[in-house]
Amino acid sequence: SHHATVKRHTSDLHESYDFIIAGGGTAGLTVADRLSEAFPKKTILVVEYGEVEYARGGFDPPDIIFGGASSARGPGVFTFQSLPNPEVRNKTAFVFAGKTVGGSSAVNGMYFDRPSRFDHDAWAEAGSPEFDTSEHKWNWEGIFPYFKKSVTFTEPSIGSVQKYGYTSDISAYGGSTPIFSSFPPFLWADNVIARNAWKEMGIREAKECAGGDKEGLCWIPLSQYPVTARRSHAGLGHYESVSFRPNYHILVKHQVVKIMYPDGTFSGSLLVELRSLVDDQFSNLTAKAEVILAAGAFHTPTILYRSGIGAASVLKDAGIPLVLDLPGVGANLQDHSGPSWSWSYTKPGNFSPMPSDMLNTIFAAKATAAFNETPASGPYTLSMANSAIYVSLPNMTADYTHIVDIIRAMATNGSSSAYLPTDYNAEPSLIAGYKRQLSVLAAFLANPEAPSTEVPFATGTSARIFLLHPLSRGTVRLDVNDHLAQPIVDYRLGSNPADFDLHVAHLKFLRRMLDTPTMRLYGAVETGPGAHVQHDAALREYIKDSMTLSFMHPCCTAAMLPRELGGVVGPDLRVHGLERVRIVDVSVLPFLVSAHTSSTAYAVGEKAADIIIRSWLK
Ligand SMILES: Cc1cc2nc3c(=O)[nH]c(=O)nc-3n(C[C@H](O)[C@H](O)[C@H](O)COP(=O)(O)OP(=O)(O)OC[C@H]3O[C@@H](n4cnc5c(N)ncnc54)[C@H](O)[C@@H]3O)c2cc1C
């Protein structure tokens, strides 16, 4: 009873709320917390598909006990398969998204990096000149204060700094929000091998990568509490830890079905249709001020479609009457993906501790005990990885202009539309928007300070090579046979062939790491793709074979772009053409950023809250 009130039945609710937020995830709960604090007399309802659950960390011991109960089972997730990707051996991606109070921040890998300043400058560039007159700026200067506000960063202890060499710069932080960012008090012993090898390749060692400049070798904090090393997520920071507010309600186990306009105008109050996931009953609630869609990049488009908002052709196929023709809904899907790369050591050093030690029952038992102590310590405090390199294309290959020129040509001649879904051809705005994006991304990729690839690492002899700025575009569509079911996700990976040029450039550069003095000392030998695979054509085939289709950063399916460029929202996050509906989640990114996406979801939530509060104060 000390925080927002959880409701389980619509009969427990008010008949109407000022703000109704669809989705109690990373960005949605950030907004709910801020609005309920700023407007004690206005009522805020979050409708969440999942439940309030304990969200274990990505690498917590299997039998961790929390609140007297075993929490071995993770919190709720949506899981389904994407359509096959013809350019990548017809593979289907395993789609995974948070379905719990806290959303994907409660199930993610806890890797908590931030984008590059150039990502946000490019975001603003994509909406220029149309959005230049808006008071809301989404360039780095316009969003950096919200990255700072969104988290509380704890500097690494002196012991960790001395032991591991952690560096940080507190000036990149400064918030006091109870979403925590901190360094684990543990590293696997071989982390230093990769770090040394990257430095020998000339990769700049960055003191801090959260302040906008992140081309180089970075230490990455985790989204975890500093002392207990337990997962920090939106459900804890923006719901559990909020002191009691009678105006802040969360309705769990309910699906937002659609939005309706009872007055027949887009400026009047709104009705929100809900479906109980317990008894399948449907009901309506009134939103007096606004509806905020925050259901994530896969599900926000489904609510819009069911409301009759989307491309007329897509709605016709689904048999839904058109309310507003907005072709950008569910278009422009992007995600991070990439091949794997591996090696072995013919002269392995004697490193300890190593992940293989966890197979030793005594070591593993000690690790669990250390994690359950206060302060927590040991291997379980390190989630997936907390180191990475981020490298720009010009710093990888002198031939980068060749790739940039290909992308520039696509942006100006007619060829780019060939790479888009065929139903885009009926929508000139989507083609124009894609060309604008390609032109902005070409300039981005030519910038020696703007990362094109990321390789996160913690330990071991394999790595995943992220394509940070894919050029291929996919779709999220409604299942025409069951509008309430999971959407049909078509990544269309590699549908723009220049993505493979980028992958090949990344891999060719990175594999040179095995020829550094440190790697030679341990007799490093490449096992995947293997030294015999040298030609670009063969590398392409290897990349297709070893590709991870999704690193689970889907975004951009309701992009902040002008309407005539296939955009769905403007800089104030209002859906084009609708006065009282905004979108506040990672759907609004025009393109992917050089970071895992949770920090951006929080920053979007913080900035959105500020925009909404200011607009209602007026
Ligand atoms: C497995 C996994 C690992 C990841 N690893 C990392 C990582 O290590 N680092 C990182 O930075 N990012 C990571 N990400 C990505 C990051 O967590 C997400 O991009 C970010 O949290 C998305 O925030 P959001 O607010 O857009 O959506 P979400 O946080 O996903 O919130 C959407 C919410 O809406 C709810 N919802 C959906 N449909 C409806 C509906 N119709 N009605 C009511 N509620 C609905 C969902 O249940 C969910 O709670 C990962 C994601 C996943 C899934």
UniProtKB/TrEMBL annotation:
Active site per the UniProt annotation: H553, H596
Listed GO MF terms: flavin adenine dinucleotide binding; oxidoreductase activity, acting on CH-OH group of donors
Positions bound to FAD: V256
Domain Glucose-methanol-choline oxidoreductase N-terminal: from-to ranges: 98-121, 296-310
Cofactor(s) demanded: FAD
Biological-process GO terms, alphabetical: secondary metabolite biosynthetic process
Keyword field contains Flavoprotein: yes
Presence of keyword Oxidoreductase: no
Alphabetical UniProt keywords: FAD, Flavoprotein, Signal
UniProt record similarity statement: Belongs to the GMC oxidoreductase family.
Name the UniProt record assigns to this protein: GMC oxidoreductase-like protein
Organism of origin: Ophiobolus disseminans
